[in-house]
Each structure stands twice: as structure tokens, then as C-alpha cells.
Amino acid sequence: MERKLISRLVACAVLGLASVSVAYAATGHEHSSSTSVQIRPDVTYTLRTDIADGKLVFIGETGAIKGKVNPQLVVAEGAVVQINLVNGDGATHDISVPDFSAKSNQLNAKGSSTSIVFKANKKGDFQYICTLPGHVQAGMIGKITVGGGSVAKQAPKGVDISASPFDVGQPVGKRGPQKMTVNLETTEVLGQLADGSTYKYWTFNNKVPGPFIRTRVGDTVTVNMANAKDSHMIHSVDFHAVTGPGGGAAVTQAAPGSKKSFTFKALNPGLYVYHCATPMVAQHISNGMYGMILVEPEGGLPKVDREFYVMQGELYTAQRHGTQGENEFSLDKLLAEQPEHLMFNGNHDALTKTHRMEAKVGETVRIFFGVGGPNATSSFHVIGEIFDRVYSMGDLTSAPLQNVQTTTVAPGGATMVEFKVEAPGRLILVDHALSRMEKGLVGFLHVDGPENADVFRAHSKPDGDSGH
Ligand SMILES: [Cu+2]
Question: Whole-number mean pLDDT of the chain?
Fold first, then answer.
């Protein structure tokens, strides 16, 4: 079983650096009763081949091993480990960890890359090598330590800026139009980006995305926006649900320590994005200044069992994805539209570790999904499910699309999706432009409950007439 798993992992991994390695972890992290899909390795290292002082070597490419020659790789016992190899010298190389039967294809061209993935299922010190004749003797050998506790975890320094997917407000139900007030504070805070790395986020109410605002068509809404005293920038807010100058941005440009407000009437039902609209707007949005406002139609939305609030965003950092410590904004990468990070709800762990999204078998799930962006269009998809209904482009008054696999959501756009969960397991929220998963864009929805063999069942032995 284990061997099969590994060979499948390796077969999958040799497709290249950008391939997504899917480990069907038989033990499952969360559920004994259901099949869990491990879609990301637990730890990733990137090595580059090079020639140093007449010797052939591996050099660490990112993170704590950056620049180190034949760096020691330390991983936890049981971890799924990915090692990427980039050809830095143009000679033919590969990478192998013989003790785990992991071996890559050969790289020939300078700049080409490959990877291996394996499960580090035994403790001890092992070797990673290049298997080409003479290359180990020439210096291409390093140590991988499994189960060593010698790597000190960097203590998190940033605050948790990830917005809860559960904060979706109260459904309006049958009520009539009313007056309401929305209070926003714009802030600049050092937030946790991933394990061991931080970023200076700009936010509404210290969360990314900002608060989910729930209104009804015909409501009269007063928006009070305060820019925190310790901000460095002017901030503002543009609601796509507002009919008026700049969606409110024309009258909310607030210097640090000042307040602005305006009142609008919600004329059009729908699911709308809001964002900061202060130059450079793309930078303010990227840094985390976006959220959503729902304008429910008369009579409210149909009742469902679970509602979630999820938004996709991008970060453009000078440091490459995976770099420890504080990551800083890069104007060049923003203008080139080349994000180093993509996230659901603000950071890499928001919907995989920090907030546990759950549903029970038989329940109906609704996701309010929006793209803050500022640039990437999302191909929103849930692995292991089919959207029963898609309210495309946030249009809540037309009949929804039905039975949809993947739906396009524009930057500054939104979509409401609904589906019934029929079988237990871990569903995976992605943008099906799956290179982005490698930059942090993934979320989980855990479905608990009894197996539903009618809908899905695994076979312990290959079925006689099913072929492969
Ligand atoms: Cu701003």
C-alpha cells in the first residue's frame, strides 16, 4: 500500500515542478471514516545544481537553506516531502533519495526543473544524491534528517488577519427595508502570511477580507469610515453596490486619524465587492483592502444549512514564495501581475488550519465567493463536489446556472454557489488555475457523517470488471 502510494507520488511528481502531487493518504489526517486527500506536501525544499570550486553541488534556493551548499534537510517523521530540483549549470543531473525509493527524471537544460515527492516514514539520517556516474564523488550528496527536532520553529510575529468564513451576518428573511449603519476602520498591521512569514497588510477592521456586510434591497445604509491614527496612507472605500460617485470613494478619502461618512440606498440586489480606492488602487487592494456586501432581494435568499464567506486575493512580494521572515511589497511584480502568493481569506493557513469549515452529510452549503484580486480571474472549483446552483456574477435575481464544475469569477466580482453534500470527506476549494495552489491558494471543507456507498465507495480490491 505504502509502496504503491510512493510510486504514484513519484510518477505524479516527475511531470514537473508545476505538477500537483496528490497523495491519497490512507490514514487520513482528520477522519478515520472517510478518504482524505492530501493535496499539498507537508514540506517543500528547492535545490539548484551548481559548480562551486570545481565541485558539483546542490545549493538551497529558498527559505532557511537559501545559498547553503548541500544543505541538511530536516523533516518531521511521517511528513510528505517534496524536493524540487532546478538545473543551474546545464550539465545532466537528477535527484534521488534512495532510502525512500524516490528518484527524479534527468535534467539536461539549464533552467529545467523536476521534483520528487515521498513520505518520510522512517526516522534517521539519509542521503539525497545525484545518481549520474561520478556525481556523488564530485560532491552532489547531502543529508536529509527525518524526525530530527533540531530546526527551531520561528515564532509567529504577525497578528491573525484571516477573516472568519463563518461571519456572514443574519439573513434578512421577510423583513422590509430599514436604515442601518456600517462602521469600518482602515488599518495597517503586520499579519501572519504563512508559518514563519509575515506581511504588512492594509485592512478593513483588521481582517482580510473586511467584514461581510448583509443588507436588503431598499435599505438605507450609512457608512462610517475611520482611518486609524497610526496609518501611513490615505484610505477610502468603494462599494460596488452603491449608486453614486466612486461607489463612495469620492467622499471617503481619509487621512490617518480622520473619519468620513456617507449614506446610500441599496437599489440593486446582488453580491458585491467593496475595496479601497486610493491611489495606487491596485496596491491597496492587493495589500488586503477588499470585502463583500450582500444586498438580498425582497423576501431574502432561500434557506440553506451552512453559509461561508470566502474571498481570493494576491500578494506581490519582493521575496519568493516560501521565504521566511517579513515579506515586503514589490511594485515591479504588481505591475507585471506576477504574484508570489495567492490566498483565500488573507493568508495561506486561513481555510486549511485556522478556520475549520464543516458540514454534515445531507446538508446544503452556500458559499459567498468573491475575488479581491486585484488582477487574477478565479476559476473557482471545489474538488469532490459539483455546484448544484451557481448565481453567476453575483446575480441573485436571474435563475441560477445548474450542475456546474468550475465557474469564472472576475477581479472585483463575486459569485454565490450552492451544493448539497452527499458523502463524507474533505472537499478542497481551489482556483483551477492550479499553479496558484503552489502559491498558497487552497481551502478545505470537511464533510462529516456516515458513508454513502450509493454515491461513492472505495474498493479494497480491484473490481473484477472495472479494468483500471
Ligand atoms: Cu487603502
Answer: 89
